[in-house]
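Need a sequence for this fold. Nothing fancy.
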């Protein structure tokens, strides 16, 4: 019995080997394990340790371990069609973290560089001296004060500059407000007061609008127009109070202005700027003009240090009040490109 089983198994293996050599296995003929194809039953060869194949499609052999497909010479695709007729999958490159970062960076830089709006803000310190004439009630006196005199009586101040721009259109605005004060003993006992308190303030607000008529790498020229608002206040009081009347006064006016600005780069980091304006013409004061020269040095891409000289002159008369002053001195500042 054992020999009969071994003979049958050997005969089956010989038939399988012969069919594989011819490229096909005929399971319709009478033989070992005859199968009816019309029954739709596809008995596989159960050999879990080796290769597996389908009796109906014996031309495709799959290796379950290596995941490889080996095609026989006479492969019959059947009703499903040839694999050549099927569309080949096209794989697109998967973006890596580096390419995604580069894409984001490129987009951000492009959006920033294409922005037409820019903003520069500056804070500065002007250390001027003053000389000229001031008067009230048809009386004038000469005035002369050094930068040290003004600093010794300095109480508070704000000095700043801001300039939004859109393409070639610029909107510079300059603001300066200072407050001075002093108190002195009065050497006149008959006045029945001990000290006199003097306070004064000056406010200058200068908004302008301009157009960059020359915008080259080695030369930039701006044409400007605007106005300057002046506000002076003075007050005098005595101590003890209610003995001698106190005094206070103020002057306000607006001067129309025209001006210009020239910037010449000296190097990739240094540049010279010369600016000036003139106005008044009886609309507010009789004459109002200034000249500014600055040397700037960029210490960071968005940070520039500046130093220079500023001269400002005004001549104003109205109802017995006279203000004819020239204010000039060195100026130091720092500018930041905010956008």
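Here you go.
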């Amino acid at each position: 019995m054992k020999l009969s089983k071994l003979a049958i198994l050997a005969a089956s293996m010989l038939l399988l080997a012969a069919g594989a050599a011819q490229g096909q296995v005929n399971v319709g003929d009478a033989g070992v394990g005859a199968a009816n194809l019309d029954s739709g039953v596809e008995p596989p060869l159960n050999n879990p340790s080796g290769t597996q194949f389908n009796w109906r499609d014996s031309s495709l052999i799959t290796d379950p371990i290596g995941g490889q497909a080996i095609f026989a010479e006479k492969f019959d695709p059947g009703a499903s069609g040839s694999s050549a007729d099927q569309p080949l999958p096209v794989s697109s490159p998967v973006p890596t973290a580096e390419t995604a970062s580069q894409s984001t960076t490129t987009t951000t830089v492009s959006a920033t560089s294409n922005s037409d709006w820019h903003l520069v803000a500056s804070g500065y310190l002007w250390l001027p001296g003053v000389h000229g004439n001031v008067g009230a009630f048809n009386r004038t006196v000469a005035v002369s004060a050094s930068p040290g005199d003004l600093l010794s009586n300095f109480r508070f101040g704000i000095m700043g500059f801001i300039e939004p721009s859109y393409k070639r259109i610029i909107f510079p605005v300059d603001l300066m407000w200072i407050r001075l004060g002093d108190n002195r003993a009065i050497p006149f006992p008959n006045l029945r007061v001990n000290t006199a308190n003097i306070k004064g303030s000056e406010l200058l607000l200068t908004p302008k609008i301009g157009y960059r008529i020359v915008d080259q790498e080695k030369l930039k020229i701006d044409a400007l127009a605007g106005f300057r608002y002046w506000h002076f206040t003075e007050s005098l009081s005595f101590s003890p109070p209610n003995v001698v009347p106190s005094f206070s006064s103020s002057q306000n006016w607006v001067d129309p202005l025209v001006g210009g600005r020239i910037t010449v780069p000296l190097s990739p980091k240094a540049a010279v700027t010369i600016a000036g304006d003139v106005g008044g013409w009886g609309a507010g004061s009789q004459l109002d003009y200034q000249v500014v020269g600055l040397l700037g040095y960029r210490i960071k891409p968005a940070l520039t240090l500046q130093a220079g000289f500023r001269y400002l002159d005004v001549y104003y008369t109205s109802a017995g009040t006279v203000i004819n002053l020239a204010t000039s001195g060195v100026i130091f500042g720092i500018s930041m490109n905010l956008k």
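For context: The first helix runs from residue 2 to 21.
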